[in-house]
Design goal:
The chain has eleven helices and seven strands. The protein is of the alpha+beta class and 279 residues long. A hairpin with a 2-residue loop joins strand 6 and strand 7. Strands 2-1-4-5 form a four-stranded mixed β-sheet, with no helix packed on it. Helix 5 packs across helix 9. The protein is globular, with a radius of gyration of 24 Å. 29% of the residues are buried.
């Protein structure tokens, strides 16, 4: 590639020229980082996303493609996240059978967006998990559905009545403003609040291809960040509320499925009305 004339300029190869441009760009960009996100965090997040599997999002880029071209996909992601210029693509919605002829909407972010969510989810979990109730079992390290079922079985031997709660359309209707207030109660980290808010505001691509805006509510079930956000919200709305208001009451919660145990029917009816009012 000829880059000049004989007036003190030289002929260099295209590869060397591109490498020089890349090195200069990386030096410049490294001086512009405003958010404390490292390349290692992005790579570790991709490992978890890869292990969990899943299909491509709206860009049709698969995990395998990202794995083969990490520099092409993950370096720009880190660069944008670390500089505050990262914005997620639309979330692809797909419908899966729920039983009894019903369908459940599942949101599938792009692979790159799932990696970004995993970066923040990992950091956020370290902050919030230690504050959660021992009776919360869903999407937590060292907690499982089997443990929730076993605790429920033991409590059913001690109590005569239960309130069985399944919040209808929870992930589709969670209020963004209240959710962000709950997140801010745990952390004031700028990058966590910035990206959580952007994911909540990301549009959704419906199965017919049309784009739907969230309109201030909903966090797509299927996103990496959604389970930890759901736990943060319900920890405030339900777990801490009932433990403070009725410390004698025992319960199990797995995400938005809750079982509350009561000694007699009057207690159950009274508590049920209080829970309805709370929600």
């Amino acid at each position: 590639m000829k880059v000049g004339t004989s007036e003190g300029l030289h002929i260099i190869s295209s590869r060397l020229y591109n490498n020089l441009k890349l090195d200069l760009r990386m030096i410049f960009e490294n001086e512009q980082k405003t958010q404390p996100i490292t390349k290692l965090q992005v790579m570790e997040a991709f490992k978890r996303v890869k292990a969990n599997g899943g299909s491509a999002g709206v860009d049709n880029i698969s995990i395998e493609q990202v794995d083969k071209s990490k520099r092409k996909y993950l370096y720009p992601l880190w660069n944008r996240m670390a500089s505050g210029s990262y914005f997620p693509k639309a979330v692809r919605q797909t419908l899966i059978p729920k039983g009894k002829g019903k369908m459940r909407a599942l949101g599938i972010p792009t692979v790159v967006d799932r990696v970004a969510q995993q970066v923040i989810a990992t950091e956020l979990e370290r902050i919030v998990d230690k504050t959660f109730s021992d009776n919360s079992f869903g999407y937590r390290a060292k907690k499982s559905a089997h443990q929730a079922v076993e605790q429920c079985r033991i409590n059913c031997m001690k109590y005569s009545w239960v309130i069985d709660i399944d919040i209808k359309g929870f992930f589709d209707n969670i209020d963004h403003e209240l959710l962000m207030q709950a997140v801010q109660w745990h952390t004031d980290s700028k990058h966590i609040l910035l990206y959580c808010n952007r994911w909540l505001e990301a549009p959704i691509q419906l199965p017919d291809g049309t784009i739907k805006e969230p309109q201030g509510k909903g966090t797509p079930q299927g996103g990496v960040i959604s389970p930890v956000l759901a736990n943060i919200f319900l920890d405030v709305v339900f777990d801490k509320w009932i433990e403070k208001r009725n410390p004698e009451v025992v319960f199990e919660r797995y995400a938005d499925d809750i079982v509350v145990h009561c000694h007699h029917i009057k207690e159950a009816l009274r508590l049920l009305e209080a829970i309805k009012e709370r929600f």
